[in-house]
Design goal:
Blueprint: H1 34-43, H2 48-52, H3 64-76, H4 82-91, H5 93-98, H6 107-117, H7 122-135
Helix pairs in contact: 1-3, 4-6
Length: 168
């Protein structure tokens, strides 16, 4: 038994069926969007330490500044997986805007960038990031957050049955 499925051939004929996104992403992103603030902050940072991590020999790497922007925006967006960040770079207009019309990086490129290039200098970069946020009056210092670490004490209810009499 053969099944003959008729599908429309979109490649033939003069009609155009291709979906086109606007070339200018500026129109789609509101002026007060957090992605614009992130872009302004990273553009004002001293990234010489980051660029020093790269060699001048070999193939031209993906732009470290754009990778840093995408990674930080992913963290702001609560996206931590490199595969999900790669997917967002291909689908989300904010990530595309941060990439400045360069191709979306592969998940392994993002992973190597995070592991190999940011390892030693991440504290310095985030310190600069927070300093610029402070200068722009984006941080109010009204709240205090703790990391939520739980420590087990000796007076734990599971250890009550042990008394000094039972110790050797």
């Amino acid at each position: 038994m053969t099944i003959n499925v008729q599908q429309k051939d979109y490649s033939q004929g003069g009609e155009i069926y291709q979906l086109k996104l606007p070339m200018d992403y500026e129109v789609r992103i509101p002026e007060n969007d957090s992605v614009r603030l992130l872009n302004r902050i990273v553009e004002g940072m001293d990234l010489s330490e980051l660029y020093a991590e790269y060699s001048t020999r070999g193939r031209k790497p993906a732009d470290p500044k754009n990778l840093f922007k995408v990674l930080v925006y992913g963290y702001m967006d609560e996206v931590y997986s490199t595969r999900k960040i790669e997917k967002a770079c291909r689908r989300d207009i904010n990530y595309m805007w941060l990439l400045c019309e360069t191709p979306a990086p592969d998940h392994s490129t993002i992973s190597r960038f995070r592991k190999d290039k940011l390892g030693e200098i991440i504290e310095s970069l985030f310190y600069q990031f927070v300093q610029i946020l402070c200068e722009l009056c984006e941080i109010k210092y009204e709240n205090v957050f703790l990391d939520g670490t739980k420590l087990e004490a000796n007076a734990n209810r599971r250890l009550r049955h042990i008394s000094n009499d039972n110790l050797p």
